[in-house]
Design goal:
Length: 94
């Protein structure tokens, strides 16, 4: 990943970064009216990366779906069930 010190940027670019960091504002960069890049805060970037990793992990995604289904049906899913320390469904509280 390329790194650039903010002090090396022009003042108007630093303003965009300040708005992004402080207010969560996003800036879309376009070429010929077509979006090509987006400026987002580092925290938002990390959250997006984590979401992508979860979505690309079928086992973890299935466990999350199972937990959400348990919540929808009003059954309590134990941590052990979610983490796989015990057989799924072994200790549900209804």
């Amino acid at each position: 990943m390329k790194r650039i010190d903010l002090l090396d940027l022009p003042e108007d670019s630093r303003d965009l970064v300040r708005e992004c960091e402080a207010q969560g504002a996003r800036t879309v960069f376009e070429r010929n009216g077509r979006p090509v890049a987006v400026l987002v805060s580092y925290d938002e970037y990390m959250a997006l990366r984590e979401t992508i990793e979860i979505a690309n992990d079928p086992m973890l995604y299935a466990k999350i779906e199972m937990a959400e289904e348990e919540g929808r049906t009003g059954r309590l899913l134990l941590v052990e069930d979610l983490l796989g320390d015990e057989p799924a469904g072994a200790d549900h509280v209804e």
